[in-house]
Amino acid sequence: MGMIGVMNCSHMQRPNGTERGAEPVFVSVYALVSVAGIALNLFALVVFIRLKFRSLTVVYMTNLALADLLLDCTLPVRIYYHLGYDGVPQKLCEVMGVALLVNMYGSILLLSCMSLDRCVAVCFPMSLCVREARKKAGWICCGVWVLTVGTSLPMYFGSTSAQVKCFHSFPVYATQTAVMASTLTVGFGIPLTVMLVSSWGLLRAIACSHAAQTELDGRKAQRMVATNMIIFLSCFLPYHLTLWILYLNQDSISCLQLRAFHYSLMVACVNTMLDPLAYYFITETFRKKVPALNT
């Protein structure tokens, strides 16, 4: 592997290494996501915990809400940093970076599992094998946590550039072929394929149904699938595209490319605020149980 060529982006930095022009954007977005994300995900967790009968889908939703909440709780550190304050230890920055990666790939895998689970439940409602497999949702979630934490730790710790510190560090893992291959395939490509195929299968099964509410259910399912896919691609595709660009141009990385990477990380964090709106509040079970909190 060749030497990493990162330009001296003096127009992006203050003497202490922070981005002068980008700070208000980062601070505003992270503040909004932190406040809204913590409130929405805490509310969702309260509803899930108080459910007397938890469906298998709720198991995935609970883990997704927990992952989102953990990342939302780390965002105040990023806000403090982007306000221009010094004194954030590099190791703390790395811990925050690991939290972001764990949330991102935990969310991606959990969302793909939810999509597949929903598809097989509709397409194969009478299959005994499918029913038994779906009962392992708890173990699948445990596997997702182990996989994301186990792969994020070595991927991030000790792999930051000495040229720019903390949240403006260059992601050295973007230059490692094995890491990039697994990230773009296992971490994004395969889950995206699962979501696309599962969404198609779900819509096709509903379209072929002869139930009385087929037309109405079909329109609702189309809106749900479209909303979920738009949020998924909007939040996670920019990060993986910029990561791929950094890998292809690792010998001569421009300031624009590095800036785009940091913005893409910020966009990925917005997912924690959108998940509750897209996956919890649109479900019949969730909306029916919300009034129970007031009793």
Automatic annotation (TrEMBL):
It is a multi-pass membrane protein. It comes from the Eukaryota. SUPFAM superfamilies: Family A G protein-coupled receptor-like. PROSITE patterns: G_PROTEIN_RECEP_F1_1 (PS00237), G_PROTEIN_RECEP_F1_2 (PS50262). The chain crosses the membrane at residues 25-48, 60-83, 95-116, 137-157, 177-203, 224-248, 260-282. Residues 40-279 form the G-protein coupled receptors family 1 profile domain. The keyword Transmembrane applies. GO terms for cellular component: plasma membrane. Keywords: G-protein coupled receptor, Glycoprotein, Membrane, Receptor, Transducer, Transmembrane, Transmembrane helix. Pfam families: 7tm_1. GO terms for molecular function: G protein-coupled receptor activity. Belongs to the G-protein coupled receptor 1 family. This is Si:dkey-3k24.8. It comes from Denticeps clupeoides (denticle herring).
